[in-house]
Amino acid sequence: MDLVVRNGFVPELRKKVDIGILGSGIVRVSPKIRESGRVEIDAGGGLVFPGFVDPHVHMDKCLLLGRMGRGQDFSTLEKKIATMRELKRSFTVDDVRGRMIQAAGIAASRGTLVTRTHVEADPIVEFKCVEGTLRAQQACRDLIEMQTIAFPQEGWIKNRDGSELESRTYIQEALIRGIDVVGGNVNRSVWESDPEQQVDEIFALAKQRNADIDMHLDNSDNPVAFTLPYVCRKTIENGYQGRVTVAHIPSLSAVPDRVARRTIDQVKEAGINVCVLPSRIRLTRVRELMDAGVNVTCGTDNMQDAFVGVGNGDLLEAMLLLAQVTGMGFDDELERIFDMGTTHAARALRIEKDYGIEEGKKADMAILGASSVPEAIRSQSWKRTVIKQGKVIAENGRLGVNISGD
Ligand SMILES: [Zn+2]
């Protein structure tokens, strides 16, 4: 065997095993493998799992703090949007590609092996993010699997005061150029345009391209921004159960309990995945959605841009933050939170068939210096070994491979 990982605790199996790897695949999972590997790694009883799956990031506009300087006013959403628009005007394809490769390296070094990133396409940035992303996706293929979403950050249809720009044709073209998933930015409390019209057009485009849907939805604690029930109805009407993800939906926390209960039942019936982003603090009804059996995932969202000044692509950190803001810090609750950035996210990204520490699956895994899931989240274990396609790509937070892509 090329590599044997010994004495690793696999949470799905609830026991310690040895894992034998040949080439890029797992060939043996057993309590004791007698054969030696060309390379041997002693997990020391630490957690071994198939890597984090980060279902919601914005890598195209990551790592911009150096361009903003200090002392800027980010006190309102409008100011953040205005700053971000200015920054986007100077983006180039190479610049986007370079920052994305850097961000992918940071995420992979922390144990993320699959990520789904939003990619902006609009009259300001045109297709620079799209082209930069497609190049970064290719350059990073031995490091991280990148799914891509065409995202209308600046709006869907042009409005009178210019706060919303016509982006729908750019989203359509982004898909033609190779972006995987149709995104949306549906928020009745911010955008003047008709949210139902945007949802209808998103479904029409998705069906035309046979693409999944992943939209920013109702990102407001104002109950007027509540298009979620409409999205549920459209998902069922279009036969898109299991293929739609909605991110944020904090307004679900602002509507009356009976409306929320009815809507959560509809979300479950429509098979919609819900992604929560704890870095925004303002959250949806996380626990109620989970208790209803909805597939709820957790992502890291932005990484050091005009919207979020922190953010480091570390899903284990996002899990700790989620545990703190939801008060879900006990062992069984932390295990549920861990699922949100692993198995649940894999289901939302529809990669669950390939995901797992099992014979016949890809040799993609992360080894943490903690003997259980709750301990890993609480201790934020920095001892992390990351294996992609049978090769060690990172140890203790340091990337061991060159990903310049040149
Ligand atoms: Zn987002």
Gist of the model:
The protein is 32% helix and 22% strand. It is α/β, with parallel strands linked by helices and 406 residues long.
End-to-end Cα distance:
31 Å
In round numbers, the mean pLDDT is 95
The main pleated sheet reads as: 8 strands, parallel
The helix content, as a percent range, equals 25-40%
- Number of helical segments? 12
**CATH secondary-structure class of the largest domain:** Alpha Beta
Main sheet: strand order: 6-7-8-9-10-11-12-13
CATH superfamily of the largest domain: Metal-dependent hydrolases
Uncertain stretches: none
Strand content: 15-25%
How many domains would you count in the coordinates? 2
Radius of gyration: 21 Å
CATH fold group of the largest domain: TIM Barrel
Topology:
Blueprint: E1 3-10, E2 15-22, E3 25-30, E4 39-42, E5 47-49, E6 52-57, H1 77-89, H2 93-109, E7 112-120, H3 128-139, E8 145-151, H4 168-177, E9 181-186, H5 195-209, E10 213-217, H6 228-237, E11 244-248, H7 257-269, E12 273-276, H8 286-291, E13 296-298, H9 315-326, H10 331-340, H11 343-348, E14 365-368, H12 373-379, E15 384-388, E16 391-395, E17 398-399
Parallel strand pairs: 1-4, 6-7, 7-8, 8-9, 9-10, 10-11, 11-12, 12-13
Antiparallel strand pairs: 1-2, 2-3, 5-14, 14-15, 15-16, 16-17
